[in-house]
Amino acid sequence: MFKFTGTIKVIQDTQRISEKFQKREFVVTDTTSMYPQDILFQATQDKCTLLDSFQANDSVEVSFNLRGREWTSPQGEVKYFNTIEAWRIEKQGQSQGMGMPSNGPSAMNMGSEPLPGVGASTEEDDDLPF
User: Fold this and answer.
1) Beta 2-11 vs 59-72: how paired, if at all?
2) φ/ψ (deg, to 5) at 35
3) Which CATH superfamily is domain 2-111 in?
4) Which of 73, 88, 114, 126 is the most buried (most CB within 10 A)?
5) For 66-92, what is each residue's pLDDT tens digit?
6) 67 beta partners
7) DSSP SS3 for 73
């Protein structure tokens, strides 16, 4: 489990991918560093509604899990993708958050550190399968 603190920049509408899967993406900006980072999070399934009580410019702390997956292109090239999946969102200064209670190990505050593999792009990354 990780935590990230920043300001909400964008909240997208919920996207229904299939009858059994939906997701909602949002961007949180870390404004504590000299070079602000815009981090894309996604909420899935019933967590999509967590964002209903938030709006752009709200200061928040997001609890999330980092997910990774392998994908093989039709040409046989193997690529790896990361997803930052939010499961709790709290307004700054609130002691009670929106989401599941934390029963895991103590959280790591990501602060202004960039996440490995997130934000780093090459020309090869422009060919995403989704």
Assistant:
1) antiparallel
2) -120, 90
3) Nucleic acid-binding proteins (2.40.50.140)
4) 88
5) 999 999 999 999 999 999 999 999 998
6) 83
7) coil
